[in-house]
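$ run holo --ligand "6-O-phosphono-alpha-D-glucopyranose" --emit tokens
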Amino acid sequence: MCGIVGYIGDKNAATILIEGLRSLEYRGYDSAGIAIVDRRKRLFLLKKAGKLKALSDCLINRHVSGHLGIGHTRWATHGEPNEANAHPHYGNTRDFLIVHNGIIENHHELKQQLRKDGHRFSSQTDTEVAAHLVEKFYKGDLLKAVCRAIGCLKGSFALGVICMHEPDVLVAARKDSPLIIGLGKGENFIASDVPAILSRTRDIIYLDNNEIARISKDEVKVFDAKCREIQKKKVRINWNTDSAEKAGFAHFMIKEIEEQPQVIGRILTHRIKSKQVVFENLNLSRAQLKNITDIQIVACGTAYHAGLCGKYILEKMLRIPINVDTSSEFRYREQIITKGRTLIIPVSQSGETADTLASLRAAKEKGAKILSLCNVVGSSIARESDGVIYTLAGPEISVASTKAYTAQLMTFYLLGLYLAGIKKTIADKTVLNYLSKMKKIPALMRDILKNQKRVKKVAHEYVHRYHYRLAEQFKFLEDEIVQFQDPVKALEFAEKWARLSHSAYGRRFGDFPFLYLGRNVNYPSALEGALKLKEITYISAEGYAAGEMKHGPIALIDEFPLVVCIATKSAVYEKMLSNIREIKARKGTVLSIATRGDKEIQKKEYSNYVLEIPEIDEFFSPLLVALPLQMLAYHIAVGLNCDVDQPRNLAKSVTVE
Ligand code: G6P
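-- output --
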């Protein structure tokens, strides 16, 4: 979602803003802009639709100097992604400029009131009202004007504000959208996320809800909503920029896929001490944890799939009811929470997902204890929970989540063991057996990654099949055209077909949907496999519990869809084989994810393609099954020339509802 950067200091603001915005590209956006002010109070404002390159290309051979500035990447919510709607926005005059992440819910009413006062609007955005409000309330003190303006706003916001009358001040404010302040020497920064400023400083302040900051080059002062100064803690970031760089890989996604053995190894080393699972920031006593009678997991997207898998894991280990819900549903339904008994587990890579944060707050209000699983240290979800378990995946840049997912899975296994130890639901011998199996997982992951050639081959064969089919369609078009005697009709027909074919191409694989089937602990793996593919290739893909196949998806089966069947050795293996037989009986094309050495499944009557994982206890198999599914999606996306790391319309961190 939208990314914000701001700078005040002695260096060239334009360079710093573009560099910062580049590091925020991963959040997803469709237009970008910057506003720079110099000491002679001259303003430079530039906005462009499309990628950041369109903006930075305009700066080539143009000397833009200025010591103060704000920059923005916009993910459109109100109004299409064009130049007028791109940020920064200003009021009636260009004296007050503003960048915003979030949604101003009462923008309609505010606009009507402001119009009556003579304000004219030049965009369709909700943000613009904030600039007009600041302008309206300005009486010589920018901080106070912003303070009054945000008092009128309903919804969520992270704001960066500058004003031509005070060229030595940058004001920042937040409510329900992330914003940090970077502390430098003789310079300071604001940003939506740490990577944007990490090459400049490691010292940051996390702004909390309803806080507002007045930032000059030498000083940062933070105030509450009533403009009373408050003291904030400085936090030192101890990870480095390497993890936010591609390091020779073609894409962040493949780099992050390859990092998984290392991430899982790190989690195990960090969390297992003397054959005991340890967590540092639980802030929940053993007695409190012992009293838990039910658990509710809430999450979105990939984290939701990890949560679903977490249900299988925790139920097996704890034998208590575990519910899982997407945050956007949980927050609005009747939440059944027994005070002191229900534990809520929000799962989130970014720790900023708006719906997950809202679910956390709703449950907290009803007296539930919150233990979150987060990747980003110091994120809003981490800070608002009673306890947090960091998933230790390191920065994840690719929009499609990979290493954060397996890190969440591993954390669920460890949490299960930890809670089972307190509740005495697993025998000590079983705990030791599980721990020793878990320790082998990084090596097994490495083994899968070594065999990437096979995945590439399968992906390429499939891409070839698609292109072949497309070529056939065009051939049909040519044949039809020559049948027309009337050149005008022929042209009309050709145009119509070109449009149709174009949209088929735009939809990619319209004729080649994917179906992912899995059972039991690998049912969530099927959902995640389908999600990975659709996110980065735009191919229509569905994940299903294999047992549900007969209740709908089987109607799709002929030779065109590719059915990915997770049929590794397990208690439900025979059931999966019988699903596969039913697919093959209908001329279906099957790609099996199978256990190495399984000769049966290699047979033509079962599989057209096979991707193998090494032998593993089925309970832990989701950790391995994830890898071929991620790689398959990746290599198909590369074959189709898709924008792997920044797929269209998606955002890494969904900070608005
Ligand atoms: C977006 C991202 C997904 C992510 C989901 C939840 O949709 O594109 O990759 O799984 O948000 O994000 P979270 O940060 O809460 O895990």
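-- notes --
Residues 300-303, 348-350, 353, 356, 399, 401, 650, 652-654 surround 6-O-phosphono-alpha-D-glucopyranose (CB under 6 Å).
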